[in-house]
């Protein structure tokens, strides 16, 4: 059975198939309108969401299925202390597939270890957001006509931006990708993404500290919000919150065909005077999110009993150890009674399996 916890749980071919299916659904929605009749999706959202939860809901409805779940864990038995694993063991009795968002990193991975139905990670802390990645890939494909051979700038909060981490991982499997990282020192991309993804996969990347110096080189500009909820220190947040703002003046220096993406919600990092620019693709991106989630739900249910679409061999082999401890206070392993698991990367670094934090 296939779960989607990390973008690389899908092979490159499966990723491309889902993007292509999303395009087919857009072109021929009538073909898919009843294909999941009598199927149910559970949306377990332990953290706020507008786009992801509603697009999952809308996607399942458009496929002819039904949706149940919660958008606020305080209304569920989680408030009585029920663990993620127990909640999933319960909900799998009521639904054919589960989408989970959780503030603790690794929570959907824990869910996948006990679930008899496919688990979709709808965002875990600052770690990963693979369905946003599928949305972004479909958007790039529709805006530019191709995903290979692009220069993409990531701007803003690259440290806590789970959408950035997931998209860089996914793009590392395409040809001719150049990445430009535009962030203040406090919000730079975590070293594990730079080392294990950019350097390990030979992605051409550079780090700069102003948008102005690179905007003219970009085919895609991926803007992000500085996420107050991820900071442990409010003073640090105040120092960086207004770091990068895209406005109509800066857009004058961009390529005629550059696409501006943003996972949304935005605060002030894209001025409203950019919204009417034809290159502003972020609201079209939201619409693509529904179609690609339709393609994903349909595919995961179709593949459920097909060994050819099992979890990929490329998943890190994990091991337990009493010598190591994950220090990430937002990792599920420091909140719930889960087996402490680690994995070792090619350069010998030991990381927590749940959140990828460096242990040694
Ligand atoms: N892009 C995204 O994840 O938005 P929501 O937080 O509203 O789901």
Task: Note down, in words, how this protein is organized.
The mean pLDDT is 93. The protein folds into three domains: 7-130 and 287-309, 3-Layer(aba) Sandwich (Rossmann fold), CATH 3.40.50.1370; 132-285, Rossmann fold (3-Layer(aba) Sandwich), CATH 3.40.50.1370; 316-360, Roll (SH3 type barrels). Helix 2 packs across helix 10 (282-303). The protein contains ten helices and twelve strands. It is globular, with a radius of gyration of 20 Å. The strands form three sheets. A five-stranded parallel β-sheet has the order 7-6-5-8-9, with helices on one face. The protein is of the alpha/beta class and 360 residues long. The two termini are 32 Å apart. Strand 6 (178-182), helix 7 (191-199) and strand 7 (204-208) form a beta-alpha-beta unit. Phosphoric acid mono(formamide)ester binds at residues 49-52, 123, 132, 263-265.
Features:
four-stranded parallel β-sheet, SH3 type barrels, 31% helix, 360 residues, Rossmann fold, five-stranded parallel β-sheet, alpha/beta
Order of adjacent strands in the largest pleated sheet: 7-6-5-8-9
Helix content: 25-40%
Instruction: Estimate the strand proportion.
Output: 5-15%
Radius of gyration: 20 Å
Mean pLDDT: 93
């Amino acid at each position: 059975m296939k779960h989607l916890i990390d973008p690389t749980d899908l092979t490159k071919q499966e990723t491309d198939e889902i993007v292509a299916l999303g395009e087919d659904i857009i072109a021929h929605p009538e073909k898919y309108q009843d294909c999941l009749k009598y199927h149910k999706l559970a949306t377990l959202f332990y953290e706020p969401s507008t786009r992801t939860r509603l697009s999952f809901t809308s996607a399942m409805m458009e496929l002819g299925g039904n949706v149940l779940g919660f958008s606020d864990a305080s209304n569920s038995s989680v408030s009585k202390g029920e663990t993620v694993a127990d909640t999933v063991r319960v909900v799998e009795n009521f639904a054919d597939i589960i989408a989970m968002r959780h503030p603790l990193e690794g929570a959907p991975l824990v869910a996948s270890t006990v679930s008899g139905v496919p688990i979709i990670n709808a965002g875990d802390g600052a770690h990963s957001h693979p369905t946003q990645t599928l949305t972004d890939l479909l958007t790039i494909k529709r805006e530019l006509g191709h995903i290979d051979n692009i220069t993409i700038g990531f701007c803003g909060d690259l440290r806590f931006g789970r959408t950035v981490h997931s998209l860089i991982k996914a793009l590392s499997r395409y040809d001719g990708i150049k990445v430009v990282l535009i962030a203040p020192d406090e919000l730079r991309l975590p070293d594990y993404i730079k080392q294990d993804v950019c350097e390990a996969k030979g992605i051409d990347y550079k780090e700069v500290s102003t948008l102005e110096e690179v905007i003219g080189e970009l085919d895609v500009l991926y803007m992000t919000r500085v996420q107050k909820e991820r900071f442990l220190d409010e003073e640090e947040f105040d120092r960086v919150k207004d770091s990068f703002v895209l406005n109509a003046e800066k857009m004058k220096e961009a390529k005629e065909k550059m696409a501006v993406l943003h996972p949304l919600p935005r605060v002030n990092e894209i001025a409203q005077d950019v919204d009417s620019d034809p290159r502003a693709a972020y609201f079209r991106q939201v619409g693509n999110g529904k179609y690609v989630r339709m393609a994903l739900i349909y595919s995961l249910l179709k593949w459920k009993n097909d060994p050819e679409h099992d979890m990929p061999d490329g998943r890190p082999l994990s091991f337990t150890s009493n010598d190591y401890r994950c220090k990430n206070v937002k990792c599920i392993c420091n909140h719930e009674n889960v087996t402490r698991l680690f994995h070792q990367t090619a350069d010998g670094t030991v990381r927590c399996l749940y959140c990828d934090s460096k242990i040694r």
